[in-house]
Design brief:
The structure is a homodimer.
Chain A: E1 2-6, H1 17-25, E2 28-32, H2 42-49, E3 54-56, H3 58-63, H4 65-69, E4 77-81, H5 92-100, E5 105-108, H6 113-116, E6 131-133, H7 144-154, E7 159-163, E8 165-166, H8 172-176, E9 186-187, H9 190-203, H10 205-208, E10 220-225, E11 233-238, H11 239-242, E12 252-256, H12 262-269
Parallel strand pairs in A: 1-4, 1-5, 2-3, 2-4, 6-7
Antiparallel strand pairs in A: 7-12, 8-9, 10-11, 10-12
């Protein structure tokens, strides 16, 4: 059996009781660590589980899936994913490959930012399409996420913006020379995301329009950091303030509210600094 | 401290390790049981927790919140919610009331159908607004959810349809006579939801239009039952087949796909009975 087990958002203890029971009795335990990031070390997991945890990077999952699946017909393999196993990535490739080989799978769900963002007090069913905001470079400044935010706002809907994570990046030089030397991981902050949004808003006003759904420097946003952990921080402020405020260590996400119901507005008042 | 603790989707063991630790050391433990439904008995929770669990119905939470909050400044109170604490309802009233009284709160997140629906293989960020399908009666057949589904499909987005739950309903007679006698709980099945959708599609074709985003009896839907439990069932079929298929005990949800990416289409093939 191949078990997909969500680890939730915080540290080792955010696994479910069932998930922990399964991990303890599995023959091999892999940790997917390229689409999301553990806020605790692998060692902390190993202490709680009382066993070795094998790190599975993108190369391993995409190119050596058979290594992961080896023996899964007769024995139990756990594939751990931060958040919910099917939150950011569906891992459909791995599921399909397992099925081809006649290996059954089961899922142990957990919280992910996609539902935990409800902690802001905004109703989940009032959210429209989720968008991703990528790191801009000098020459590459895609802004199609802005149009999606506008489309949601046009329908009165909130937008959850997932912020870019760069893991195992190679510098251009190392890439060209084929050296597997990786840059330190980078996580976009709400401050950076707000700065990019401001640049779109301020510099492209003419091209984008200024109607009421469009963002302005004083538009209300909700910055969230480390949701689900002890150091969680929520801040309701203007886009301009967000672009000037450091919320500390990752992971961050940004919410652009649409039309607020009374209770939602009351809730957002709670996070005003 | 007031702890909001998600119980996840399955049985008692779907609480997180952290959540269980907190419940065990709290002075009082309440279980909110009107917006969602436990798939196990309260007794099963009490055995795992080693302590009493107090059922909190809507009346209690809305009218006697102070009873729940009593002593929470000095001691720890747990408020358990099936799924994620801020999934279906934000419980903002309770949070605001606690803050007014200077009682801090913390949230222990968990899976809810809002993110666990990713188990279908459909990407969460491709979902548009979530809709609720209510039980129709002889004389009351609201269908505004259909327009929302069409709006999502028009943008290529999937729609998660949450299906009606009726708990603590009173018959008209008992309501008039002021007798607190309640009907057995009712849970809408994917079969009933599909039947209501078919009625809209077939009877209102002229009024609603027949463009490509509109549903037809042979449109593809994904029926899900008991997500996150041992008896979970997923079925990809036509709307017509869904209206004729019994997926067994609750809870059910229905997904109306929008535009499918290749991997999403491959994933849905897995659930073709």
């Amino acid at each position: 059996m191949l078990y997909f087990i969500g680890l939730g958002l915080g540290d080792a203890k955010d696994i479910t009781v069932r998930g922990l029971e399964i991990v303890k009795q599995c023959d091999r335990v892999y940790l997917e660590h390229y689409t999301s990031i553990l806020t605790c070390g692998k060692e902390e997991l190993e202490i709680l589980y009382g066993r070795e945890v094998i790190l599975a990077d993108r190369d391993m999952v995409e190119q050596s899936a058979d290594t992961i699946l080896e023996g899964a017909k007769e024995s139990d393999i756990a594939f751990l994913v931060v958040g919910d196993p099917f939150g950011a990535t569906t891992h459909t490739d791995l599921v399909l490959r397992a099925r081809e080989q006649g290996i059954p799978h089961r899922v142990v769900h957990n919280a992910s930012i996609m539902n935990a963002i409800g902690c802001t007090g905004l109703q989940l069913y009032n959210f429209g399409e989720t968008v991703s905001i990528p790191f801009w470079t000098e020459n590459w400044k895609p802004d199609s996420f802005y149009d999606k935010i506008m489309k949601n706002r046009d329908s009165g809907q909130h937008t959850l913006c997932l912020l870019d994570i760069k893991v195992k990046e190679q510098s251009e030089e190392n890439l060209i020379k084929g050296r597997k030397i990786f840059e330190p991981p980078r996580f976009m902050s709400t401050q950076q995301a707000a700065q990019q949004l401001l640049e779109i808003v301020v510099n492209k006003e003419q091209e984008r329009g200024t109607g009421s759904v469009h963002l302005k420097p004083d538009s209300k946003v909700v910055c969230v950091a480390r949701v689900g952990t002890e150091t969680q921080k929520l801040l309701t402020c203007s886009l301009l303030t967000a672009s000037q405020t450091d919320l500390g260590p990752p992971l961050h996400s940004l919410v652009i509210p649409g039309v607020l119901h009374d209770l939602e507005a009351d809730a957002l008042e709670m996070w005003k600094s």
